[in-house]
Amino acid sequence: MLKLDIAHQRLHTQHLTGTRLTIAEEVVEWLGAVQSQDYAGAKWAVAQRTKGLTDTDLDQAFATGSILRTHVLRPTWHFVTPADIRWMLALTAPRVHALNAPYYRKVALDDTVFAQSNAALIQALQGGQQLTRAELAAVFEQIGIRVDDPLRLALLVMQAELEGIICSGGRRGKQFTYALLDERAPQARRLERDEALAALVKRYFTSHGPATLKDFVWWSSLTLTDAKVGIDLVKSELVAEEIGDQTFWFAPSTLPAKSPTPQAYLLPNYDEYISYADRSAICDPAYAKQFYPRENSIFSHIIVVDGQIIGTWQRTVKKSAVVIERSTFRTLTPAEEEAVVAAAHQYAAFLNLPLMLAA
Fold this sequence. Notes:
Blueprint: H1 3-13, H2 24-31, E1 34-35, H3 39-47, H4 55-64, E2 68-73, E3 76-80, H5 85-106, H6 111-125, E4 131-132, H7 133-142, H8 150-162, E5 166-168, E6 177-180, H9 181-184, H10 193-208, H11 213-220, H12 224-234, E7 239-243, E8 246-250, E9 264-267, H13 285-291, E10 301-305, E11 308-317, E12 322-328, H14 334-351, E13 355-357
Parallel strand pairs: 12-13
Antiparallel strand pairs: 1-3, 2-3, 4-6, 5-6, 7-8, 9-10, 10-11, 11-12
Helix pairs in contact: 5-8, 5-10, 10-12, 11-12
């Protein structure tokens, strides 16, 4: 398998090429989880893998709860489906809690405080109530839990998400709200740990492969030991291929022929296409720091041509148009430029706005 073959296959397994999916829930279920701390970018990530969902369609899916948003991996927000949210949290939350432990200690949060805060959340949200973070802060203050430190408030809410007590409600205007998970996803599945581990490993390598165990560990927050156990449980359903000193796992499938013309995508900053510990198969290492300057920094929106990251883009949404500015790492051919412009028009159509390309 060559570097370009890895990129070509990932585009296919992630449904960026080939058959597109129909609804938002299908995309999120296929990928397992879709990173979504940038809500606007995450909606575009989902829509690109469908037959033409719009920004309004994604807002509606989120409002009705067909896709939910919670802290489940790494830790950061992800879209997950109501069916998957409970078993996935049960599997990953202990690891995310371990990552958060130094921050819990820093702001004096312990099991006693969490028991009080979680009980207060259940009482405040029961009966279909959906409250903003500011309103949750008021709930905590009423029972004497200090939330003057923004980090303390964020961790109180995240801990309740990880424990499966709350998840996203619908938005109130531009504000996000929280609801009880039991009420938002009453049919959520529960799995035994090994069953959940096998499900998550298979889901990742089927939807993100070819990928390595280290890629899965980075994506899932689980340990390498867990990853090895998971692979052993499902390896009969996957293909393994050695490249140098690395083993790549993926699901058997028939790849479509490569397009004779360049295929371009304007992907959002945290798209699942970059959800790998090693991104060398999809980006020349010489370019990597131009879209990801340093560890723990914010990714730029990326331009992908034929599976390779070749530039970044920014958008400014106005009432009358969306303005897109582009910066490429190399000179594009006329055909590549045409493909990038076509991708920009697709984004404008997603927003139902005219496109303005900045000079």
